[in-house]
Description:
single chain; about 15% strand; elongated
Amino acid sequence: MLHTVAKLHYEADMSQVDIARRLGVSTATISRLLQRARAEGIVRIEVLDLATPEGITTQLVEALGLRDAAVIETPAAGALAALAAPLGALLKQAGLTAGKVVAIGWGRAIRQVIQAGLPRIPGVLTVAATGGMQQQAAHFQINEFVRLAAEELGGTPHFIHAPYLPSSELREVFLGDAAIRDSVALWDRTDVAIVGIGLPHAINPPEASAATLSEQALFHAAGDVIRHYFDAEGTLIPWEGEGRMIAMSPAQLRAVPLVIGVAASPEKAKAIIGAVRARLINALVTDTKTAQAILEALLPR
């Protein structure tokens, strides 16, 4: 009878009164039988621990070997803009002071977090992490991001008025310009970099990323950080334009104490893992859905 009473109550969702009527016994008898069912292990009641953003952050840091991370509960809308607050917290924790250098990448996430607002850190220098792109799309306007970031932080912007992918000959001409040369020199003394993480072009339409034909051919790439491509294991993938880009190099990114990747999309899980393994980022700002997708992708198959 123990098994029957347990099935009726916990699976058929019948009340103790209804079970007692059905079986022709007292309600007190049903109550005692349910207590015995739990005591004898016929019924097991488990209270699940809900994953919190703080708990997921700890798991993420440990699983990826990150220097730091900030994870927020996935909002119903505006996920990218919502990352501004945790990004600001990481910037404050970095101990930035006047004269410190913050390099800024491009992308939708970078645009959204800067527009949403950054904390006041007077006197910092903001610099573009790469040259510009002759595209109208708002998420490519890197010098505007640098200007706005400086305005939000209370610092001084340093622009790079040169394309990110000139010809080899023009690259040397651009880098010979005093203003550009001075801005590029800041890459070697960058204290914090804020970068987006790109999707592989196989699932990211060329028009969305303005990829060249050479870049579109990188079908085995997991993603990119300012056009430095890598596979899922973090191995850098050379491409035709790599040597003539005007952008922070992988070596320069790896030398930066804190490189914060900003991303919120579960489909970017493998790209984020690859970026960490390539040592192009060492910190991450994201949401719970993306973080959980990363942790699931790291599970042994």
